[in-house]
Amino acid sequence: MEITAEDLPGLLENDNSVKLAGVDVDGMLRGKLVSKKKFLSIAETGFGFCSVIFGWDMHDMTYYKELKVSNKENGYRDIIAVPDLNSFRRIPWENNVPFFLVSFFDPDTMEPVPACPRGLLKTQLEKFATKGYGAMAGAEYEFYQFKTPRAPSSDRAPSAAAYLKDNTTQSLPSLTEGMFGYSLTRPVHNQDYYYDIFNTCQAFRCDLEGWHTESGPGVYEAALEFGEIRQMADRASLFKYVVKSVATRHGITPCFMAKPRQGLPGNSGHMHVSLVDKDGNNLLYRGERDPDPPYADVAHLSDMGRHFLAGILEGLPDVMPLVAPTINSYKRLVENFWAPVTVSWGLEHRAASIRLIAPPTAKPGATRFEIRVPGADANPYYVLAAVLALGWRGVEKKLEIPCPPLGKGEDVGGSTDMGARLARSLREANDRFMREGSIAREVFGDDFVDHYGGTRDHEIRLWDEAVTDWEMKRYIETV
């Protein structure tokens, strides 16, 4: 049921405060607590929110190169944050305080701020809505979990970040040791935490379909409940909020880095996407099997589905900073670690960048694409916006699938004989993303690409200036 401003006094009758939060370019929630009186006064019109959240990085350092949205010249002015009333939920670990997500708008035009993740996804989805189409999505997240040792004089564990100021990363103990995916016994070791996550997600309207250990020390995987794509992006973002908040109470630090530990599998953030008509019918399913398909893998995939797939494959190399946004992302995207490294696809092929899930192995209504390139570090709004933007470009241009499906015997990661090698670093990815005439500029526009690309240039510069433990260990005595 749609929530309106008229519903709010009754909905918040017994409350005296409301928590509000928006999403920045790194997928981090940024927000504050306001009084109920304040919230009711701005619920429809929105309120001023400092634009600096789009002018600094994940550690609140202003970008080296000032960007258009927020800068000294415009005084880091306010932008307008408008609550999404239908995002309402209560935070169970904070005395059920009411919570709403906001989207950010330019105060002069009231158009979405180019970098606003929720706005970007909404803009891409509107292209489909003009034709009466919609999109559904699901998300899967893997993440490591670490226990931080308590200080002798304290009964509380510090955060992992605090612990690492005085200790090495390798000394940070995993929640459990060893490789034991789909284990029924390992969660028993920390069962209060394990069930707390599952139950809290349900209470916070962030329901999980599946929840299990994954292969890796202290690694869990969560499959979020499939749903409408904008709601899915919200729940994917809020899932991390739940996990980090609940974990704190148990002395655990969850880690959504793409590659936390050398020599071990990374953390994926796979996204499942399908298209539907106004009646909810799957638009990717063909109906009757094509007797003469270009590839056997797409015999049950509709013409629209084939064009959509072609658009993703053609544009994927140009949007890599959106699906692999950090320096660390590219440590996961290496050969032979169950992560795709090429432009590739295939029916039920887990080594490919795009896994087609369709009959005969799936029900017709479950026909969908699994986008396997993103890591758990990616911003879900940007990932889903990229999938929609590239797919729609393929549909509009009636693009043909540019490469054959990955062979079942192909090595994990894919073959460069079949498809182009994806970027090996954030620098390589961002140069392609920002270049003149890139597909990213075509589908998202210059304002977004210049802003987001500028934030990635900032990340690259920080990495270039960093002196790592590896360098010290290798060169301290030998050069």
Automatic annotation (TrEMBL):
PROSITE patterns: GS_CATALYTIC. Gene3D superfamilies: Glutamine synthetase, N-terminal domain, Glutamine synthetase/guanido kinase, catalytic domain. SMART domains: Gln-synt_C. The keyword Ligase applies. One of its GO terms (molecular function) is ATP binding. Residues 117-479 form the GS catalytic domain. Belongs to the glutamine synthetase family. This is Glutamine synthetase. It comes from Chaetomium strumarium.
